[in-house]
Amino acid sequence: MQDHEILVIENIDFRYGARKTLSNLSFSVREGEICGLLGPNGSGKTTLLKCINRILKINSGRITIGGRDLAKLSREEIAGLIAVVPQELNVVFSFTVMQMVLMAGSIRFGLSGTAKRNDHGHALEILEELHIKHLAERRYNELSGGEKQMVLIARALFQKAGILLLDEPTSHLDFKRQYLIMEMIRKITKEKDLTTIMTLHDPNTAGRYCDRLVMLNSGRISHQGVRDKVFHAAYLEALYDMRIDMQRTDTGAEYVLPAFKP
Amino acid sequence: MKSNSAFLTIAILLIVSVVFALTTGQYQMELTTLAKLTALKLSGQQPGDELAMPAMVLWSVRLPRVLMALLAGAALSVGGVVFQGVMRNPLVSPSFLGVTHGAIFGASIAIIFFSKSAFFVESFAFFWAVVAVVLAYAIGNRGLNPITTLVIAGVIVSTFFMAAGSFLKYIADPYEQLPGIVFWTMGGLNNVLWAHVTRAFVIVSSGIAVICLFRGRLNLMALGDEEALSMGVNVKWARVLFMLFGTLIVAAGSSSCGIIMWVDLIVAHMSRLLIGPDHGRLIPFAALLGGVFLLLTDTIVRSMPGGEIPISIVTSFIGAPLLGYLLLKQNHEWKG
User: Fold this and answer.
1) Most exposed among A100, A129, B12, B107, judged by the fewest C-beta atoms under 10 Å?
2) Would you list which residues of chain A are within 8 Å, Cβ to Cβ, of chain B?
3) What's the pTM?
4) Interface predicted TM-score (ipTM) of this complex, two decimals
5) A34 in helix, strand or coil?
6) What single string gives the DSSP state of each residue in A151-194?
């Protein structure tokens, strides 16, 4: 892990109309880290991801990526720096998996966005790395939730951006696939020198896979920092407004459970 | 269908339907005569007296009509593909954004208040088609879901222009002006001249070329605004570009033949079913299929035993039931 701050967020505010959704947020993410955004429903996690990608424009404050002001970058430049894996993507037209992946390179390919032969080869390599090469000619719409999620990750990798934003990557997956996807995200982040920022619902997933945690409550940061400093029962209790027990497995890994009075 | 075999099939169909259209009609022409006249034309020789009549029919009447059918069919179909892609809805077409009723309104104004000259009628139709789309876009491009509001805005603008068009029909002279308006509304390729073909060719081919140039961005737009933004597309500008060029080719393609209903929707949809949703292949395929479809329909309507009938009657007879069938077949997602 390097010491270089790749993403710096300084005092940002965001309003949907008159409603303030994000209020005076500041934090930074270092290159190579996996940063988890935790918080209850409606706390502003997804809004924050959209602000980082400038799908939504912040009302005040500043976001810099690799020292460059996000507000001054073109859409194409942002696409070269940040790739997004949405929580769910419903596509009206039946594109194949290969077409979906290649589309992520459209802007890189020039005006017409046409892929060349070696781009096909590269896309196939990525599909193979994620163990979904056999899906290449299948229609995206016909895939299962887990397969779709893998295709969206493959697509984000093909975009060749240094920062990966994932919005609740495990929300539609069964227990095993949640684990497989998170292992894959950790693997590609480390192997491809990416920086990954993702919203998560499950604090145990965040505790297990994230290097850094940002806890959001009603659009404000309640706690943030490297995982070991903030993954505490007291902070999570305040975040989710419930009693939480912190426990340890035989191997020493920490996990949390809801605590109910008998 | 595999992409290459689909293109090969449509190319063969194109050649066959052009030959069929050139030899069929009230004046039947033998294939040998067609071959002779083509050979003479290519060698720069004048036909003899015995071939003067078929030469006149072929070069002055039938060929411009055939070419115009191909151009108008291509323009309408590519317009349909573009609008469906930008709006992510396989059941919309340029007419949904007011292009059709704007054009009828414009043509009616020209016929009633100015002149029945083709130039005035076509220019007014084109101008008001663009006005209708700009209005629909200005009203609809807002809110969190601009696609839905845009379609609703299209319905509003269409309804307004439909009412205005009906009013113009009401005040039109029933003997001098009304027949012209009604005929233009129903569409037809019977008044096509070489000048129309040249003008339409320049606008339609350059418009389709521009749309093709940005085909990658159209693919991304078809995934959704946020997706397109995330992958580097300036969505607002891209939408304006595609809708402007989509309207331009539809208006140019249909300005000399009036309103031809349903072709944009049906052909765009059939093309997507046959060749898939990738616009790199879809746009040229839809252009070819649209051309063949309109050419064959036009050949049928002008070969009717009782005389020519307006082409929109036939395209609507095919289109309306087909759309009903597609709606019934549509589930949560679109297979095309």
Assistant:
1) B12
2) 50, 53-55, 74-76, 78-80, 82-84, 86, 89-96, 99, 103-104, 106-107, 109, 111-114, 141, 159
3) 0.89
4) 0.92
5) strand
6) HHHHHHHHTT-SEEEEESTTTT--HHHHHHHHHHHHHHHHHTT-
